[in-house]
Amino acid sequence: MKKLLAVFAFLIILTSCNESKIAYVNVEEVLKEYKGSKAAEEEMRLKSEQIGKEIEQLGVQFQAKVQEYQQNLSKLSDADRAKKEQELRQEQQMIQQRQQMVQQQFQQEGNEMIDGINEEIGDYIKEYAQKNNYSFILGTSKQTKTVLYGKEAFDITDVIIENLNEQDSTNTKSESEVKTPQTEETK
User: Fold this and answer.
1) Domain boundaries, the chain
2) CATH number belonging to domain 19-177
3) How far apart are CA 117 and CA 175, in angstroms?
4) CA–CA gap between residue 34 and residue 163 (Å, rounded)
5) For residue 95, what are the β-bridge partners?
């Protein structure tokens, strides 16, 4: 009877212990290969080119005014020369201020875009973890080295990238569409 109770107690303890399911994701790789990241990067590249052209155009116009001033320098009185130089300095300062303002705005937009992508990826990983009964999904990269060692079977980076890239713009996916990695448990 005591042996039966001991076996029964042992079985209860075994069944009450939940096994934690753990995986890891290379965050750098997800950011590099995620179509949303690539689209954001391309959008920022195009904006950067547009801003560069705008600033360059302002510089060209300013240089034309400077050349005009230099060509007419001998024809100007001292008062007109001082007035024109003051105007040119003010315009140069306005161009520099405009350049700084545009760069700050561009940087802020870029940061907001990155934050949005990180949030989107984080939300998806959380959803993936819940649907696939993961207790933990760790993020790692070459810089952070959060996971110093992990079996390849627990690296779900490719699965996350593939699922994120397949996700449509409305972020709707049924549970059957979420792919599960082949781990030692499921092989």
Assistant:
1) 19-177
2) 3.30.910.20
3) 22
4) 9
5) none
